[in-house]
Design goal:
The N and C termini lie far apart (39 Å). The protein is built from eight helices and seven strands. It is of the alpha/beta class and 242 residues long.
Length: 242
């Protein structure tokens, strides 16, 4: 049985990615931070399909990440796929961004991903195989007004993805990212109906995305069908950024 480690597993996108991997027969190793009820509900649901284990971890804290990966390897021996799905967003004018705002967004979106990759990669290298999939954002490519720090953090994820693809390819580890557009999750609850209508009208496919749209893209990148694909940013936005 293959093992997948998913951060942000209690979120709208992370939980759908977990469901997708469960349907593929993976053992699920799910990382969450504060949403204990959410992860317990998800584990109960998916335990009917496959083996599931949950780990509480603030991925901004290196020691906690190291401990989770150590525990996973000790019990399950290997991590076949890492999905960095944890993410946070904030809407601020740049002059209103505080140091704590910046540290929070970059801490979760960038530092957390780096720490997980740092501690997972040595085990993938020893196995001479592995698959790392980062969840980015279309705003990392084109930028979003009033979300400059969030956009910058996702731009960093895109660069990280491309750099690591080159660094890890000799060890047969592929690194890619999925870059969602507007997806129907709680993260986007701040959008007004007018804002949503405007975005939908500007989207060639004429709808906002579903978490399953992102999960399907992750499934593809994790599959053998993508065995010659690395260092790519797969945009899933209904054509909005064309």
């Amino acid at each position: 049985m293959k093992n997948v480690l998913i951060s942000g597993a209690s979120g709208g996108i992370g939980s759908e990615i977990a469901r997708k991997f469960a349907s593929l027969g993976y053992r699920l190793l799910l990382i969450y931070n504060k949403n204990k009820k959410g992860i317990e509900k998800l584990c109960t649901e998916l335990a009917q399909i496959t083996e599931v284990a949950a780990y509480q971890c603030d991925i901004r804290i290196e020691a906690q990440v190291k401990q989770v990966v150590t525990d996973v390897i000790k019990k399950y021996k290997r991590i076949d796929c890492l999905v960095n799905a944890a993410g946070v967003a904030q809407s601020r004018l740049i002059q209103d961004v505080t140091e704590s705002d910046f540290d929070f967004v970059f801490g979760v979106n960038v530092k957390g991903s780096v720490f997980l990759i740092k501690y997972v990669v040595p085990h993938m290298v020893s196995e001479k195989m592995g698959n790392i999939i980062n969840i980015s954002s279309m705003w990392g490519e084109v930028g979003a007004s009033m979300e400059s720090v969030y956009s910058a953090s996702k731009g960093a994820i895109d660069s990280l993805t491309k750099s690591l693809a080159k660094e890890l390819a000799p060890s047969h580890i592929r690194v890619n990212a999925v870059s969602p557009g507007l997806i129907d999750t709680k993260m986007n609850k701040g959008y007004s109906k007018a804002d949503l209508a405007e975005i939908i009208s500007a989207t060639p496919i004429s709808r906002i995305g579903k978490p399953s749209d992102v999960a399907n893209a992750v499934e593809f990148l994790a599959s053998e069908s993508a065995s010659f694909i690395t260092g790519q940013i797969l945009t899933v936005d209904g054509g909005l950024t064309l």
